[in-house]
């Protein structure tokens, strides 16, 4: 509501060229709130407002804009002004944004940056997408191990505005080899002995990430050890950057979205749902629908194979939806639990015996529970009480089969080096549907013949 009320005033300031009020607007509030108040402006108007802020403040407000607005500004505004803005952004953020621009536009901007910024950007852009190197920042508190506590504090005071975080101070040797870490708390506490060297304070057992390490593995380390930042090193253990907790949150969100989409039988979307092209969206959904269509086709072939039994005992057809949905639902439950367990790191392949043993017990309990309802309904419909037993017996075995398939298939995919989320719930349900029909009509063949 506040945003809507303020927009006419902002537009009026722009129309009147009221420099003093625009400068005050850019500096008076929290950067996030300032960006929020500008949401209703066009990208051109938003840029005009930003030009009334000092360069560091401009970058701070800009970083809170939606990504779509950020990219629109980078594409259309003057390259010299954009280069100044990019020079003020965090190293990892500016690389992410440049990845969304055309190569021609990037080539316009890069020569206008300082040589140091240009080298830093080109180095970070060289790392493959999805690796630790691609999401790290080079703006970190890096100190020589021979500095005293007093010298270290002076160094931090001089350079702290260039660091993304100073929770951890990374201690390096002359060749940039990572020796260890000192927390900001340790440094402040050590002020009682200001001549003490950092080499006497460092913790050498440091959790690190390799530049080529998968970002999901890095996120798991940060979560496991409850870190605020993790240092990134190369093969020679030279410190090249850090990944902070806010970047890890982005990785976790991205991985969760990807897994959720795969579990719903959708190829992962490369961008937001509202921004992705309709043809691309249709393809990503359609390819899985085609796979599931052919999976369901096997169910139809299975029914065709047992056509004689269905002709003789027409009442069996009434329970087909019940049978296949019970198996599919139980399989989807198990698949979801196993996939989320492996994604969060609480379940590993070495636990497969425990998982299957637990599923054996749970599937029997669930099978008996569902079968009891099936028996009650079947007695009313089936010609005789003996015939009615086909339904609960089938439900018992189908639910067991669903639980086993739902738990086993994602682990098999993981063992093959594939993403377990590819074994999506609809895919598991499709497989269990076929097995459910086979179980159902074979039980009927044995008991009704």
Oligomer: single chain
Which CATH first-tier class of the largest domain would you pick?
A: Mainly Alpha
Gyration radius (Cα, Å) is 30 Å
Helix content: 55-70%
Instruction: State the fourth-level CATH superfamily of the largest domain.
Output: SLC41 divalent cation transporters, integral membrane domain
Strand order of the largest sheet: 1-2-3
Task: Write the H/E string, N to C.
Answer: HHHHHHHHHHHEHEEHEHEEHHHHHHHH
Largest sheet entry: 3 strands, mixed
Tell me the distance between the termini: 72 Å
Descriptive overview:
Helices cover about 65% and strands about 5% of the residues. α14 (about 215-225) packs across α15, α19 runs antiparallel to α21 and α21 (about 390-415) runs antiparallel to α22. The protein has about 450 residues and is mostly helical. A three-stranded mixed β-sheet has the order 1-2-3. Strands 4-5-6 form a three-stranded mixed β-sheet.
